[in-house]
Design goal:
By secondary structure, the chain is α/β, with parallel strands linked by helices. The protein is 32% helix and 16% strand.
Length: 249
Protein backbone atom coordinates (compact mmCIF):
# COMPACT_ATOMS: atom_id res chain seq x y z
CA UNK A 1 0.00 0.00 0.00
CA UNK A 2 1.28 3.47 -0.88
CA UNK A 3 2.10 5.66 2.12
CA UNK A 4 1.99 9.07 0.42
CA UNK A 5 0.48 11.66 2.72
CA UNK A 6 -1.82 13.25 0.11
CA UNK A 7 -3.84 10.02 0.05
CA UNK A 8 -4.49 10.02 3.81
CA UNK A 9 -7.83 11.91 3.58
CA UNK A 10 -9.17 9.14 1.33
CA UNK A 11 -7.99 6.46 3.76
CA UNK A 12 -9.68 8.31 6.61
CA UNK A 13 -12.98 8.67 4.74
CA UNK A 14 -13.00 5.02 3.64
CA UNK A 15 -12.32 3.97 7.23
CA UNK A 16 -15.42 5.91 8.25
CA UNK A 17 -17.41 3.94 5.65
CA UNK A 18 -15.91 0.65 6.82
CA UNK A 19 -16.66 1.45 10.46
CA UNK A 20 -20.29 2.07 9.47
CA UNK A 21 -20.42 -1.23 7.56
CA UNK A 22 -21.08 0.57 4.30
CA UNK A 23 -19.70 0.28 0.76
CA UNK A 24 -19.21 3.11 -1.74
CA UNK A 25 -20.11 2.28 -5.35
CA UNK A 26 -17.46 3.33 -7.87
CA UNK A 27 -17.13 2.84 -11.62
CA UNK A 28 -14.43 3.67 -14.15
CA UNK A 29 -14.81 5.25 -17.61
CA UNK A 30 -12.05 5.88 -20.14
CA UNK A 31 -12.70 7.85 -23.34
CA UNK A 32 -11.59 8.12 -26.98
CA UNK A 33 -10.56 4.56 -27.85
CA UNK A 34 -10.18 3.89 -31.58
CA UNK A 35 -7.40 1.32 -32.06
CA UNK A 36 -4.92 -0.76 -30.07
CA UNK A 37 -2.14 1.36 -28.58
CA UNK A 38 0.57 1.00 -25.96
CA UNK A 39 -1.37 3.40 -23.72
CA UNK A 40 -4.49 1.26 -23.97
CA UNK A 41 -2.42 -1.83 -23.15
CA UNK A 42 -1.13 -0.01 -20.06
CA UNK A 43 -4.67 0.82 -18.93
CA UNK A 44 -5.97 -2.71 -19.51
CA UNK A 45 -2.98 -4.14 -17.64
CA UNK A 46 -4.01 -2.07 -14.60
CA UNK A 47 -7.57 -3.35 -14.93
CA UNK A 48 -6.25 -6.92 -14.97
CA UNK A 49 -3.77 -6.42 -12.15
CA UNK A 50 -6.34 -5.02 -9.73
CA UNK A 51 -9.48 -6.70 -11.13
CA UNK A 52 -11.15 -3.31 -11.67
CA UNK A 53 -13.97 -3.34 -14.28
CA UNK A 54 -13.81 -0.57 -16.88
CA UNK A 55 -16.10 1.09 -19.40
CA UNK A 56 -14.35 2.11 -22.61
CA UNK A 57 -15.97 4.85 -24.71
CA UNK A 58 -15.17 3.98 -28.34
CA UNK A 59 -15.50 6.43 -31.26
CA UNK A 60 -17.56 4.41 -33.76
CA UNK A 61 -16.71 6.11 -37.06
CA UNK A 62 -12.96 5.69 -36.60
CA UNK A 63 -12.76 2.20 -35.13
CA UNK A 64 -12.73 -1.25 -36.71
CA UNK A 65 -11.85 -4.91 -36.17
CA UNK A 66 -8.29 -4.40 -34.83
CA UNK A 67 -9.58 -2.88 -31.57
CA UNK A 68 -12.39 -5.42 -31.27
CA UNK A 69 -9.90 -8.26 -31.71
CA UNK A 70 -7.59 -6.78 -29.07
CA UNK A 71 -10.43 -6.40 -26.56
CA UNK A 72 -12.30 -9.65 -27.23
CA UNK A 73 -10.69 -11.58 -24.36
CA UNK A 74 -10.48 -8.63 -21.93
CA UNK A 75 -12.28 -9.38 -18.66
CA UNK A 76 -14.51 -6.87 -16.92
CA UNK A 77 -14.69 -4.56 -19.94
CA UNK A 78 -17.79 -2.73 -21.19
CA UNK A 79 -17.91 -0.92 -24.55
CA UNK A 80 -19.98 2.27 -24.88
CA UNK A 81 -20.77 4.63 -27.77
CA UNK A 82 -18.66 7.81 -27.86
CA UNK A 83 -20.63 9.94 -30.30
CA UNK A 84 -19.94 9.18 -33.96
CA UNK A 85 -16.78 10.97 -35.16
CA UNK A 86 -15.94 13.06 -32.04
CA UNK A 87 -15.99 16.11 -34.31
CA UNK A 88 -16.83 19.59 -33.05
CA UNK A 89 -19.70 21.41 -34.77
CA UNK A 90 -20.04 24.32 -32.34
CA UNK A 91 -18.87 27.83 -33.28
CA UNK A 92 -15.29 28.70 -32.34
CA UNK A 93 -16.20 30.96 -29.42
CA UNK A 94 -18.39 28.34 -27.70
CA UNK A 95 -17.72 25.05 -25.92
CA UNK A 96 -17.06 22.08 -28.17
CA UNK A 97 -19.98 19.82 -29.04
CA UNK A 98 -20.65 17.07 -31.53
CA UNK A 99 -24.18 16.42 -30.22
CA UNK A 100 -25.30 20.03 -29.84
CA UNK A 101 -28.09 21.97 -31.57
CA UNK A 102 -25.82 23.05 -34.43
CA UNK A 103 -27.07 20.48 -36.99
CA UNK A 104 -30.48 19.03 -37.91
CA UNK A 105 -31.60 16.62 -35.23
CA UNK A 106 -32.30 13.84 -37.72
CA UNK A 107 -28.67 13.90 -38.92
CA UNK A 108 -27.32 13.66 -35.37
CA UNK A 109 -29.73 10.85 -34.48
CA UNK A 110 -28.88 8.96 -37.67
CA UNK A 111 -25.19 9.06 -36.70
CA UNK A 112 -25.96 7.88 -33.17
CA UNK A 113 -28.02 5.04 -34.65
CA UNK A 114 -25.11 4.04 -36.90
CA UNK A 115 -22.67 4.21 -33.99
CA UNK A 116 -24.90 2.04 -31.83
CA UNK A 117 -25.32 -0.60 -34.52
CA UNK A 118 -21.64 -0.66 -35.47
CA UNK A 119 -20.33 -1.14 -31.93
CA UNK A 120 -23.05 -3.64 -31.04
CA UNK A 121 -21.96 -5.71 -34.06
CA UNK A 122 -18.25 -5.42 -33.21
CA UNK A 123 -18.72 -6.13 -29.48
CA UNK A 124 -21.70 -8.44 -29.15
CA UNK A 125 -20.57 -9.72 -25.72
CA UNK A 126 -19.16 -6.49 -24.24
CA UNK A 127 -21.47 -3.81 -25.63
CA UNK A 128 -23.61 -1.69 -23.29
CA UNK A 129 -26.37 0.52 -24.79
CA UNK A 130 -24.98 3.72 -23.27
CA UNK A 131 -24.11 6.98 -25.01
CA UNK A 132 -21.04 8.92 -23.87
CA UNK A 133 -21.33 12.34 -25.58
CA UNK A 134 -17.97 13.76 -26.73
CA UNK A 135 -16.84 16.54 -24.39
CA UNK A 136 -19.61 15.37 -22.02
CA UNK A 137 -22.14 17.65 -23.74
CA UNK A 138 -25.43 16.85 -25.46
CA UNK A 139 -28.44 18.90 -26.57
CA UNK A 140 -31.20 18.17 -24.04
CA UNK A 141 -33.69 17.91 -26.93
CA UNK A 142 -31.91 14.71 -28.05
CA UNK A 143 -32.41 12.85 -24.77
CA UNK A 144 -36.04 11.73 -25.37
CA UNK A 145 -35.04 10.47 -28.83
CA UNK A 146 -32.34 8.04 -27.69
CA UNK A 147 -34.44 5.19 -26.27
CA UNK A 148 -36.08 4.40 -29.66
CA UNK A 149 -32.54 3.88 -31.04
CA UNK A 150 -31.83 1.31 -28.33
CA UNK A 151 -29.93 3.47 -25.84
CA UNK A 152 -30.72 2.90 -22.17
CA UNK A 153 -28.40 5.43 -20.54
CA UNK A 154 -26.24 8.51 -21.08
CA UNK A 155 -23.00 9.33 -19.29
CA UNK A 156 -21.76 12.90 -18.99
CA UNK A 157 -19.91 14.76 -16.22
CA UNK A 158 -21.25 16.04 -12.92
CA UNK A 159 -24.09 15.15 -10.59
CA UNK A 160 -27.02 13.39 -12.24
CA UNK A 161 -30.27 15.30 -12.34
CA UNK A 162 -33.47 13.36 -11.54
CA UNK A 163 -36.44 13.29 -13.86
CA UNK A 164 -34.52 12.87 -17.12
CA UNK A 165 -36.08 11.00 -20.07
CA UNK A 166 -33.18 8.52 -19.98
CA UNK A 167 -30.99 7.16 -17.18
CA UNK A 168 -27.87 9.19 -16.38
CA UNK A 169 -24.75 7.32 -15.19
CA UNK A 170 -22.32 10.18 -14.81
CA UNK A 171 -18.65 10.64 -14.01
CA UNK A 172 -17.55 12.98 -11.22
CA UNK A 173 -13.73 12.94 -11.03
CA UNK A 174 -11.83 13.87 -14.23
CA UNK A 175 -8.15 13.20 -13.58
CA UNK A 176 -6.90 15.44 -16.42
CA UNK A 177 -6.03 19.16 -16.13
CA UNK A 178 -7.42 20.19 -19.52
CA UNK A 179 -7.03 23.95 -19.06
CA UNK A 180 -3.66 23.98 -17.31
CA UNK A 181 -0.83 21.49 -17.71
CA UNK A 182 -2.87 19.16 -19.97
CA UNK A 183 -1.47 16.37 -17.81
CA UNK A 184 -2.81 14.66 -14.73
CA UNK A 185 -4.13 16.82 -11.91
CA UNK A 186 -2.17 16.81 -8.63
CA UNK A 187 -3.04 13.77 -6.54
CA UNK A 188 -3.98 15.80 -3.46
CA UNK A 189 -6.48 17.80 -5.49
CA UNK A 190 -8.11 14.68 -6.94
CA UNK A 191 -8.19 12.97 -3.56
CA UNK A 192 -10.00 16.05 -2.21
CA UNK A 193 -12.62 15.83 -4.96
CA UNK A 194 -13.13 12.11 -4.35
CA UNK A 195 -13.46 12.58 -0.58
CA UNK A 196 -16.13 15.25 -1.14
CA UNK A 197 -18.07 12.90 -3.41
CA UNK A 198 -17.82 10.16 -0.79
CA UNK A 199 -19.00 12.53 1.93
CA UNK A 200 -22.05 13.42 -0.17
CA UNK A 201 -22.83 9.72 -0.67
CA UNK A 202 -22.40 9.02 3.05
CA UNK A 203 -25.19 11.52 3.75
CA UNK A 204 -27.55 9.49 1.60
CA UNK A 205 -26.92 10.29 -2.09
CA UNK A 206 -26.94 6.88 -3.79
CA UNK A 207 -25.42 7.97 -7.13
CA UNK A 208 -22.38 5.82 -8.04
CA UNK A 209 -19.12 7.78 -8.27
CA UNK A 210 -17.58 7.78 -11.75
CA UNK A 211 -13.85 8.16 -12.37
CA UNK A 212 -12.99 9.57 -15.82
CA UNK A 213 -9.69 9.06 -17.68
CA UNK A 214 -8.30 9.51 -21.21
CA UNK A 215 -5.56 6.92 -21.74
CA UNK A 216 -4.18 8.49 -24.92
CA UNK A 217 -3.07 11.70 -23.18
CA UNK A 218 -1.96 10.44 -19.75
CA UNK A 219 1.36 11.64 -18.42
CA UNK A 220 3.27 10.04 -15.53
CA UNK A 221 1.16 11.92 -12.95
CA UNK A 222 -2.08 10.59 -14.45
CA UNK A 223 -0.84 7.00 -14.68
CA UNK A 224 0.46 7.18 -11.12
CA UNK A 225 -2.92 8.42 -9.90
CA UNK A 226 -4.80 5.53 -11.49
CA UNK A 227 -2.32 3.00 -10.12
CA UNK A 228 -2.42 4.45 -6.62
CA UNK A 229 -6.21 4.76 -6.64
CA UNK A 230 -6.46 1.06 -7.47
CA UNK A 231 -3.87 0.16 -4.83
CA UNK A 232 -5.87 2.05 -2.21
CA UNK A 233 -9.33 0.78 -3.17
CA UNK A 234 -9.23 -2.52 -5.08
CA UNK A 235 -9.63 -4.74 -2.03
CA UNK A 236 -10.87 -2.14 0.46
CA UNK A 237 -13.89 -3.40 2.43
CA UNK A 238 -15.67 -0.05 1.95
CA UNK A 239 -15.30 0.10 -1.86
CA UNK A 240 -17.40 -1.74 -4.43
CA UNK A 241 -16.02 -1.29 -7.96
CA UNK A 242 -18.84 -2.13 -10.36
CA UNK A 243 -19.49 -2.56 -14.07
CA UNK A 244 -21.41 0.37 -15.53
CA UNK A 245 -24.18 -1.98 -16.68
CA UNK A 246 -25.17 -2.46 -13.04
CA UNK A 247 -26.36 1.16 -12.94
CA UNK A 248 -28.29 1.32 -16.21
CA UNK A 249 -31.59 0.09 -14.81
Amino acid sequence: MNDRAEWQPLRNELQRWADAGRKAKLWFRDDDAIEPTAALDQLLALSDRFSIPMALAVIPAHTAKPLANRLASQKGLTITVHGWTHRNYAPDETKKQELGPHRPQEIVLDELHKGFDKLKALYSEQFAPMLVPPWNRIDKALLPELAPLGYRAVSVYGSGKPGQPIALVNTHIDIMDWHGTHGGRPHGELVGYLVRELQNRFKGDDEPIGILTHHLVHDATAWDFVTTLFEETAVHPAVDWRQVGDFMG
